[in-house]
Amino acid sequence: MAHPVLWRGKTFFYPIGNTPAVCLTQDLCPTEKADILLLGCGDPRHIFYTVYTNSTGLQASRKLDFTCCDLESAVIARNVILFTLLADEGAMQKVSQIWNIFFHFYLDKASHDLLISQCRKLIQLSSDLDSWNNGPYGHFLRMCTGDTLVELRRLWRLYVKTTTCTPSETKAFKSAYAADVEASKVKSAFVYTSSRAAGPLSIYALQIANDHYNIYWDTGTCSAVPKRPSEVSYPNATLAYSMAGDKFAVHYGTDPLSCFHLAEAFAPAIGSARNPDQVTLKDVVSVCKTQFSRWCTSVSKILRSQGSSSPSPFIIRYFVGDALSLCQALNYSHTAKSTSTPYTVAPWETACIAFDPEAYGSGTQSPAPTMFNVIDTSNLLDHIGVLNILAVTFPILQRTPSATLYTEGLSGNSPEDTLPRQLCGDIATTGLLLGLIPVSFVSQFTNRSNMHELLLQATTEDGDQNHERLAWKLLGCAEKLLTDLDCTIDIAPEQLAGAFFKIYLNMFSNENVEQKLAIVKQSLDSIASSGIMSGIIHYHRRSFVEILGVVKRRVITDWDSTMNMLQDKIQNDRTLMTGMNFYQDLCCQLHLLGVFDVDWLSLQKVQEVHRVERPFVFRDWKTLPQTVCVVLCIPRARIQPLFPALDQAGTPVLQCDVRGAVTLNTFSCINTVFGTVKINGKGDRKTAAIEEDTTRRYGTSPLVVWFWVPSIVLMNEHRLSIGLSVLSTPATCMPLVMRLGFDLSLFRADMGDEQLVHILRQRPNAVPESPEEKRIQIGGRSMKTPGPVTIFVTLDKECKKPLSFTTRMDIIEPDMKASLTSGATPTVDQVSMHSIAIVLGDKSLQSHFLLPIDAKKAKLRIARKSLYIEVILPLKLALGETGADMFPVIPKGGDLALWNMHRVNLDQCMPFSIANRKALDWVNAHVALMLSDRERCIPHGLMTGSTLLDVKYTIHSMFGHASGTASGKPPLCYALQEGQKIFAMLYITDLRLDVGTHSIVADAWVMPSSPSFAKVKAFNKVSGHVLSDSNMKQLGMGVEERKAWVHLLVAATERCRTWEHKTNCEYRVQGAIPLTFDPEESPICSCGAGVGAEAFVKKYPMLRPLAPHVTRAAISPLFALSYMEKVGGPEAAVTTKTPPTPASAVAVPHVCAACGKEGSGSGSLLICSRCKVVRYCSADCQRDDWKGHKKRCVAP
Questions:
Q1: Which of 281, 396, 496, 1027 could be bridged to 491 by S-S, CB 3.0 to 4.6 A?
Q2: Has residue 1170 got a pLDDT over 80?
């Protein structure tokens, strides 16, 4: 296991999600087959919403294949019930009952009878995999393993069993169920968790969220009525059984409203004059039920439309078990072409993952995917650590520019520090080593908003959690011309060893005593937000070795030198107090995973020590392997009395040790299970078979622990003991030290006690093979070999951050050879944010890089005789330093992929009314938070010095005017212009909610400038409407911003398209995206011109002649990154101010910085006497704005 073993004390059941549904295909090409892996899948809301968003338009033909994993089998048992109900005849007539079954604690008789009837049906169909696969649901609902089906069937039988109890048993069951429900409810005065589901309108949902939470937990029903009807009296059996035992253990924060898009309830609907603060709980519940019904209709329709004989375009595969194990097993199956894997199903279990041969076997006609273009990890980041996730998901992520990994997590009071802390190092360095990077980190913006989280944090007393969802992609795939997404990088051994060591220190910072003492000196709030007191440890030495293994396959270096230097650093380290206690564990894992063998662990050295020492423990061993498996059996009578203390200690980490008179070696990568051990053979032929106790901690069997150790460790001393203990952390030490002593020891046995300790060549329940033969995971693959172009990475002196890339470009083209040998000086041009061109004469040679680089600061080393040029390029990662090409659109086969803008189905995005300005205060507050606190301090005239910030101001102005909050009546069109030249016209027909990303989107139609006679003729017909001052809003900009808008318009039309690119598409014919930067030519292809323009004509009938020439586009706010810099701080002025208007190309904006009032001439506004930039309409406005303006007012 890549994660430490945690004691399973008090656990909660999460049957219902706590975040709104998202579309899982939003980053894929419209018709691209979706192979989606859901880790920690939870309830099926994301599948529902994804099917719904793919039910219309171009993406309706997309094939969807979901592989879903959850450690909690009860979650999956419920999901299967839901999907099978929707596949049955007459499903839509039962939606209200299905709603009850899935969300309510208590059921009416009709809903209860439907649930039990469905469970009986599922039991009949699930006797084995064959019967399930050949049943009515097997063509779309598959089980990854036979063990999964067995576990689900066990739960369905338990649900049915509740109806066959005696009257006294039924009474006891209902009484215990009701007591557990009452005990689980939060007694806090105010619970507003579900308000987050309203996104930008969450501030209006606080009271309603609290009201619904109380009603839900008081009545057990999702309702606006605070009293449960008498006929709703049946406990929901699907909530009565889970990993927590045979009891109601639903998490106290559960609220069905959290799953839905509450913004649709609070945003003013078209034709409605209602303000958001007038929305009632009844309205909100009604909207949630409507959304659920829409999703169910889409799912039921696709299930009912597909036959069982042909391959299904919609498949869901379920696996009950550990997410990290599944990823490793999928990778093993993919590389070894085997359905049997060496990875255990889950912690506290012995069975290994064995995939269904019918789906994963090599001879299968339609094999199940083992590589994925979408991997969603839910909130596992908070539970198993982001480095563990990256290490196991990178190998199974498809090598395409659209392939995406999603992570979600909660950060504390300082979200801008969270990601580097989670990554145990610099974001860019980790990305280079592991091959995955947050898309928004490179882009410096995101379309997904979590600004409402920041507002909640600022406006509520206990707002210490900030939800962040990140999209990760393969490093370098933002570059259009980079073909090798596993591009070779080279790092000097000493720098790579330094980088590894920094990661090592951060991964195990809990062992740093000085750091702990420093934290103790902080305030209690700081300690709580740091997570130190929680005692949650995500990494052990194997986790670190897994990281090294991924890097070994990616990087070119002298690996042995790197590892030897790393070993020296670790051995000489004095910052981690117990670091050397785990050194043997580290070396053991390096060997087992085939990453590196230290000298003393060589087979020759081990055999030599064995021959000389002849230790008693190996007296019957003919040959000795480098590592052996130690099995420790702990009698139930010795461990059972400690359960209460362990349960009260949070999530204690278990570890083993080998202790001698003068030595102590701790091993953190252990395996545990309750069961009995049967031993066969002796000496090096001894084997162990464990029979698991299915009742686990509630049974009577011993606790069995096993772990790998270097065999030489057992020969260092003659009298050794084996122990099990709890890792000491502030959270575990305080409650346990009085009971267990300072070493937190749970049990210890002499190594010579053959009743309790066994030394084996293989792990228990293993086939007869040595662990070295299983090293296909890492050791069986060669290191990365140099490719045609290798990028050399230089880190800073501390080996924390990357400074520059160096590449050698061989000159092969004859004319360039001649130029170089004749003494010509090459120049370096920036082609894109990831690529450069070396120019010699009229010829050029391009090179592509994994992260943004700065060609202006390039250094050249020229070898004229050897005919090569070495280019040294500093990285361009500083905030605000973005190029114009920050919205890449990448060719992918015959399609186009987007790098940093998700796709939207505009027709499924709810439009909201702008008729009532009082109902739209939230719009400007939302859009204003595009700017970070740093950006707000930059004076904004025509240009700010940051192209991205200039684009943000233009978008800010566009939304302000389109919503009417800036100038009353929205203009008819927006003229994007550089100087006096208009290069594009935008017509906004609607403002819509983009609920999946908690944002809004402008439903726009773009008409780029063009000398086309037809377009000119059409525009002349409507110019009287368009060109009037009140109907056209001029948005002026500089050269770089215009170039950025050219890229943005291409991405904006691509992200919402409902049409296919034609075979003669200009992008394909000209081989260029955008087509041009000429302000008088169109940068976008003509494939979508006029498609769907009926909506445009309906909104603007007077502009009908333009309909054949406009292309639909989706314009969204570009939000600052709260994980990189402060957003929404006290220096951010007032976020509800009216947005500024971008200036024309010849003047700073004539607009009041306080109220947004526009001036009609140069003398109509007062100008700040100090900075000579900001203007005001009155002295009162200047006084009102001074508190915020003085922080960024700088004299010229």
A1: 496
A2: no
